[in-house]
Specification:
The complex is a heterodimer of chains A (about 120) and B (about 120). Chain A has about 120 residues and is mostly beta strands. In chain A, about 0% of the residues lie in helices and about 50% in strands. Chain A contains no helices and eleven strands. Chain B is mostly beta strands. In chain B, strands 2, 4, 5, 6, 9, 10 and 11 form a seven-stranded mixed sheet that branches. A four-stranded antiparallel sheet of chain B has the order 1-3-8-7, with no helix packed on it. Chain B starts with a strand and ends with a strand. The chains are: A mainly beta (about 120), B mainly beta (about 120). At the A-B interface, strand 5 and strand 10 of A face strand 5, strand 9 and strand 10 of B.
Chain lengths: ~120, ~120
C-alpha cells in the first residue's frame, strides 16, 4: 500500500517530442505528489509538485496531470530538449500534524532526448 | 540562500567499519531527512529529524542512527558496514510545521557516495 509504481522504465524521444511518464499509487492518504529530476552523480532536484485538489499543474515546459479517482498522475515535458535527458522520479507523501512527511519514490524513468 | 550541503562527497570503507556522514540543511529549514539510493533505484527513506528528535523511521536496522544539532544540521551514522550499504546517501531538508503549503517540499543535497569493500 506504500508503493508508488512508475512506468516506463526508460524512454527515448526526439528533440521537440513530448515524453510522458506515469505513476500509480494505492494509499489514498497521500496528499502531495512531486516529481524530481536527477542527473548522474547528483542529488534529485524538485521539478514540480501537485496536491490532490487540482487535476493539472503547469510550470514552464513541465505539466503534471492528476487523476484522483484512478489514483494516477503523470509528467509531461513539452518541447523536450537534449538537456532534459536525465532520470525522473515520481514520489508521494502524506502529512498529518506531527507525523513524518517521508517521500515514497517510484523506481525512476531514464529519459533520453535525441537531437 | 544556501542550499543543502553534504560531506564528504565520496567515501570508501571496508566491511565491519563505521561511517559518519554530514548534512547542513537549507537556510530556514528545521527538518532533515535521510535517504539511501542504491544504483538504479529510487531513494529509500531512512529517517527524519525534527527539532533534534527522530520523527519517523523507514525499514532500516538500528545500526543506522542519526543526530540533529541545534543549528538543524544532521549526521547519519552507520555501524558494522555491510557490502549492501554501498549506495548514494541523500540528505533532504524542508520547513516542517511551517503551516504553509511549502512544508512538504523537500530539497536534496548532492549526496555522499559510500562504497563498502
Amino acid at each position: 500500500q506504500q508503493q508508488v509504481k512508475q512506468s516506463p522504465q526508460s524512454l527515448i524521444v526526439q528533440k521537440g517530442g513530448i515524453p510522458i511518464i506515469n505513476c500509480a499509487y494505492e494509499n489514498t492518504a497521500f496528499d502531495y505528489f512531486p516529481w524530481y529530476q536527477q542527473f548522474p552523480g547528483k542529488g534529485p532536484a524538485l521539478l514540480i509538485a501537485i496536491r490532490p485538489d487540482v487535476s493539472e499543474k503547469k510550470e514552464g515546459r513541465f505539466t503534471i496531470s492528476f487523476n484522483k479517482s484512478a489514483k494516477q498522475f503523470s509528467l509531461h515535458i513539452m518541447d523536450s530538449q537534449p538537456g532534459d535527458s536525465a532520470t525522473y522520479f515520481c514520489a508521494a507523501s502524506t502529512y498529518y500534524g506531527g507525523a513524518t512527511n517521508k517521500l515514497i519514490f517510484g523506481t525512476g524513468t531514464l529519459l533520453a532526448v535525441q537531437p | 540562500e544556501t542550499g543543502v550541503t553534504q560531506s564528504p562527497t565520496h567515501l570508501i570503507k571496508t566491511r565491519g567499519q563505521q561511517v559518519t556522514l554530514r548534512c547542513s540543511s537549507q537556510s530556514g529549514h528545521n527538518t532533515v531527512s535521510w535517504y539511501q539510493q542504491a544504483l538504479g533505484q529510487g531513494p529509500q527513506f531512512i529517517f527524519q529529524y525534527y527539532r533534534e528528535e527522530e520523527n519517523g523511521r523507514g525499514n532500516f536496522p538500528p545500526r543506522f542512527s542519526g543526530l540533529q544539532f541545534p543549528n538543524y544540521s544532521s549526521e547519519l551514522n552507520v555501524n558494522a558496514l555491510e557490502l549492501d550499504d554501498s549506495a548514494l546517501y541523500l540528505c533532504a531538508s524542508n520547513p516542517l510545521g511551517g503551516g504553509t503549503t511549502s512544508y512538504n517540499e523537500q530539497f536534496f543535497g548532492p549526496g555522499t557516495r559510500l562504497t563498502v569493500l
